[in-house]
Amino acid sequence: MWGEVILPTSFYVNFGAMEPIVLNILGCGSALPTSQHLPSCQVLSAGNKLYMIDCGEGTQLQYRRSELSFTKLRAIFISHIHGDHCFGLPGLLSTFALLGRKAALGVYVPDYACRMMEGVVKSLCGEMPFEVTFIPFNPKVPAIIYDDATLTVATIPLKHRLPCAGFLFKEHEGLLHLNRWACDKHGVPMAWYGRLKSGSDYVADDGTVIPNALLTTPRDPVRSYAYCSDTVYRPQLVELVAGIDLLYHEATFAEADAARARETFHSTARQAAQIAKDAGVGRLLLGHYSARYKDLQPLLDEAREVFDETYLSQEGMKLSL
Amino acid sequence: MWGEVILPTSFYVNFGAMEPIVLNILGCGSALPTSQHLPSCQVLSAGNKLYMIDCGEGTQLQYRRSELSFTKLRAIFISHIHGDHCFGLPGLLSTFALLGRKAALGVYVPDYACRMMEGVVKSLCGEMPFEVTFIPFNPKVPAIIYDDATLTVATIPLKHRLPCAGFLFKEHEGLLHLNRWACDKHGVPMAWYGRLKSGSDYVADDGTVIPNALLTTPRDPVRSYAYCSDTVYRPQLVELVAGIDLLYHEATFAEADAARARETFHSTARQAAQIAKDAGVGRLLLGHYSARYKDLQPLLDEAREVFDETYLSQEGMKLSL
Fold this sequence. Notes:
2 copies of one chain form a homodimer. Chain A is built from 11 helices and 18 strands. The first copy, chain A, is 25% helix and 26% strand. In chain A, α10 runs parallel beside α11. Chain A folds into 2 domains: 19-174 and 220-320, Ribonuclease Z/Hydroxyacylglutathione hydrolase-like (Metallo-beta-lactamase, Chain A); 177-217, no CATH class. Chain A has helices at residues 59-66, 83-86, 89-98, 114-125, 180-185, 193-197, 212-215, 237-240, 258-263, 269-279, 297-306; strands spanning 22-27, 41-46, 49-55, 73-77, 105-110, 132-137, 144-147, 151-158, 164-171, 177-178, 202-203, 209-210, 216-217, 224-228, 246-250, 283-287, 310-312, 318-320. The longest helix of chain A is centred in the middle third of the chain and has 12 residues, at 114-125.
């Protein structure tokens, strides 16, 4: 399973000299175990740091197989506390302890379950050789809950049987690029380069002003990724994920099981595609498949009727934004 | 990995008409995850019932892959509460709940951790649709902790960083076999067959006594299996597992790392073989391999120098006692 990684080459387009942001799919199944899929877990790699989204049972095994660095993980974001989204947490943290991790780690958990989860981890893992901080967030309102030098993470309220939030990862706006040829032409000294990159005009010693637009080229586009699982079809999502590069939206069911999707507060692949289309996202990634489907092609076909740029997630997949 | 199952054919010898007792290896690695092995879990199948020994992370996935019945599981025995022996419990029980299990399940946990584990499962799994009973046992004394129509389970005190017990599974003694030819010759009526099988002599209406030994053939041999993990080399084990059919003994380290084995309260493969030899067991199965060994052949070679009937356990293996 791990060997057969489908890597849509279109995802490998790299915008200029930008460092790639890579999404690693460690698990994209749902609650019942199958021999095809593992429960939810993803790792986003950006700016030489790693961010984990959900942590289903088996995450540490998949993490090891992925050959991602254990030490570069900065934070873990848990969407809700159904087992297939968080039961891998004690094992992962124990392994970090065994490996002698020293760096602090933040674990973001919905407010109603944060102390419980902290208590469970303390009971099972005992004293840890590194600082683990459990940080509660309100899953019912959209808000920025994390911010570092590379990106911000905002919550996306979803509608599930338990309060549940998706996460929007958004790169910070980069600097303007210097037009070296123009700078030389206008005699701009190197000491000004930093200010130009931040948007200042150049003011020469004699008072001459050279507008910034003549000396720089535009910033790189800001890249963004949203994870939306688990949720019933929820049109309110559209404005929260409008225009993003990549959307992962749960697609637990095929259209024939739409009634079951509603009952269990899940979505169909077609509904995921409707959100993607209405929000005008770049690409859509489906996941959180029900154990009942051996063949996922019908889910992909149903979604592509609505939104062509749809792909099936799969364990071991790596997508460069 | 799962596909490459090594099945020593010698294990498939089936004693006459006896129903096979089968040991299923779901995981035989140790604490650190590798791409080769999963943490400890085994399922023993006997008398149409299943018994689980340890329940490391990923057990429910391995259980599903093994195609063993979820509903036939009667009891789970946890040797100690290091994560690689018990972190799969919440996920397994949640899945049973999702699948609508109704049958009661007993979970046997060392006394010092039983209430903690019960609390963790309650916190993570919530209300269950079936009865789960956490039963504490003292891991420091050998005692029968489980008994049903098929077998008994006794604890085997081990010596590890935490109090830890192995488990000895022993079939109940079966009935004598009728010698139909002899019964007919001596005119024994069918109504006596049950008493003869239990060992009675036949007393005819005229008072003639026909000794049982003339009318029956011996009982089937009682089959037995012992699981011993985790433990430092412990010669006291020998008398507790003397003469059993199959011994699983941890072999975390190779002989070159014997000092590390002592420090961490684990055994080498050679030490496992010494126990097997001194106890005169039928066969020895090694497992709980340290993540440092990519190739396990040296462990097997070192053990076979001491005890020839040694085998390496592997995920997916099924051994018929």
